[in-house]
Amino acid sequence: MSGLAIDDAAWSSAWRWRSPTDKLLLCLGLVVCASVLPAWPGDVLVGATATALALGPARVPPRIFGRAVRLPMTFIALGTVTAVLSIDDGGIGWAPDAAERAGSLAGSALAGSTAVLLLATTTPISDLLPALRRLGVPAAVVEVASVVYRLVFVLLDSLRTIREAQTARMGYSSLRRTYRSSGALAAAVLTRSWDRARRLQEGLAGRGMETGLRVLPEVLPSSWVFLGATALGVGAIVSVSVALS
Fold first, then answer.
1. Would you kindly state where each structural domain of the chain is located, as residue ranges?
2. Which helix (H) or strand (E) holds 91?
3. Could you name the domain of life of the organism this protein comes from (predicted)?
């Protein structure tokens, strides 16, 4: 079964053995800074800090981190263009403050996404979910996230298997066959995922699972040095941003 590149990076990260709570607080602080500080220089500092931490101390491969950032950038670009359009009696045009609004929106979104990806590429989901439960996130939310995470790998495996079979039958040899095979692939993956989810629900119900699956999580101790460095770093970003803005 093929895995996710981000998940593989998280398991091999140098921060794998750091407390997930520490990393959550760090990334949460960066996301809050990206949300409330001005685009210049706040968002630039947040994005640069998250990238430097990922590629430096955490030793996330630059290729994987770059590919992870690329997809959010596409949605950010589309959302930014939509937000700065103005529709009036004269038709569709740009808003009067389009450049400023676009820069602020894109900067905040990209900086926040980079901070979230820092957490995703350094913390396996098996460490993150117990940490969220300890922080008071409702058990139902954590349980749904766990099931969705497992189903992602089932979908990826189904997608790879079906596509390989279609390719072996020359399903992508022409444009017409590509459209036809892509539609069949989407339908087959959707049907199979629905069936696997139904069987999973029936299996858990048959075993009397009403409160969630209890496991013994691996406890990683917090580091006061790391937490202190986080507080100093976030404070420095806020101070520099306030001073320059």
1. 5-123+220-244, 136-206
2. strand 91-94
3. Bacteria
